[in-house]
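So, can you check what follows?
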Amino acid sequence: MKSEDQSTLRLELVAKYRIPIRYLHLEITESAYTDNPRQIIEVVEKMRNLGFVIEMDDFGSGYSSLNMLAEMPVDVLKLDMKFVQNEAKKSSGKGILSFVISLAKWLDLAVVAEGVETAEQISSLRSMDCNYVQGFYFAKPMKLEDFENLLQTAKTTEMVCTSRTAVQYIVDDMPKHEAADGKVMLIVDDIEINRAALAANFMDSYAIVEKENGKMAWEYLDEHYDQVNIIMLDLLMPVMDGFQLLNKIRSDERMKNLPVIITSQGDSDSEKRALEMRANDFISKPYNTEIIRHRVENVVAGYELHCIKKHELELSDLMENEKGSQESPSPDEKIKNNVEVLKPYFDVVRLVDPVHTLVYENDKDEKCDIHSCYAIWGKTTRCNHCTSLKAYEQKSKFTKLEYSEDGLYFVISEYVPYGSAGAVIELVTKLDDEYVDNVFDKDLLYMNLDELNLQLEYDELTGVYNRRHISLHQDKYISRARKYDRNLGIAMVDVDYFKAMNDTYGHLAGDEILKTVAKMLENNIALSKGDFVSRFGGDEFIIVCRDIQPDIFVKRVQAVSDLIHHMIMGEGIRVEVGISAGCVSASEFPDLDANGLIEQADKRMYRAKEAGKGRVVYTD
């Protein structure tokens, strides 16, 4: 750790083996700090600024200064096994242990408890909200071949405890409810713990039916499809996997519209394929149980709306047939009739023009006011995340959760051909306040809802933010940085010779290059909370680091430029990919807004390309 060559050596290693820097964790011991605090802090800061994750090992075994936690730039705190084992036995020890864990979390550090050997220790640490535990309780050190065999044969329930399974933990920890009457959820997953987690979370709302694979689920659906309200489907299963079952469901006229939510490991290819096969939603494991209920409610409500509209359409056709030669209602009148038919099923049903925030009510068109518009989160201007506006622009249907000071709302917005320009039907249901208060930590829930709504701002190809995110939030980032006297770095990045590579290797290869570059930028630069990468357009990306010194920001951009230059594409083919980048710091231009800073970064990026490409320019 004292050698200046350490950073160079580690950068060469991650470049050679294409390891994202944040996946390489460096451990330091508590005693190293006490030997020479200043030196170890300087070295650790340098490694951390490059992007390595720093762990403090054996905390509690020596000096244990609480000031050290604030001074030392670490990401993970590992509690010494003797500290965990000895202090957990004492009546005062649990208080100290809980205090240290709480303090670490307040400092935004993950906590790992080492040396866990008993169920009592696990239970105690779980009650203190410890992030991770490790120790002989799960398994002792073993040879490589034994470990590989363990991975292939062990069940996940065994990794929680031998005397009390994870399933029991989940079921025991959930509030007890009577099974719901009339509504059925079919859970299809070969892993018992996954089925138990979902069942425990929904047993108050649905009668639960569990099946271990697609074949068993299909046999059940073939007889009971008309009783099922929602299917929670894993993808990776023996006998018949989730894709095969989803294909059979969507190909069967009886059940082709049944709501299906995929619950599987979240890789982009699986998600894309599932949605292309008309899955209603894709929820990556491990999922947030506080949010998954609302994702399910969104899908089920959409399905119920489909059934209502289908029934209403059939009824309307029947009435028109009975009228015979009588004059049929106009298309606009049919839309308004649909609105009236839907009103008994929702708290608010209305027809809107989201562009001009107009509400069509009977023959009187009124402006949306700030409190009645469900595109608003208690703000003084129309929200840029407006689901109805998105539905209008894309002529489609979208759902989301909205919140304001007076509660939590579930909103469905669907485009309809109304008048000369079209309109949107908004269907709104207010969630019961008592239910929300009992089930959710509202602050945490609303924070997670913000994260869900940000999905509108992601680039579909690369998985990073899109230009919409920049335009919506750029000024807020700048003003906040200046308000709290923090430096903010912006880099405009362009992939060198991208058109030539596209022409040579084809558009699919070009897409892979863009995805790989985006992931490398995100893994190796956007490292601190709030940092991000955005695709600005074509082969251009923007990097924003919200609290960073200019010299460190430039070093990060230069380091990832070197990594990208040495990357190898699929099939072991070496492709000479490089990036040119222009960097600016908010402190350089105190009078410029976000657009001005991006323009300056763009100018420097073009100077970098003119200077020979593969360069980083950070001065005028």
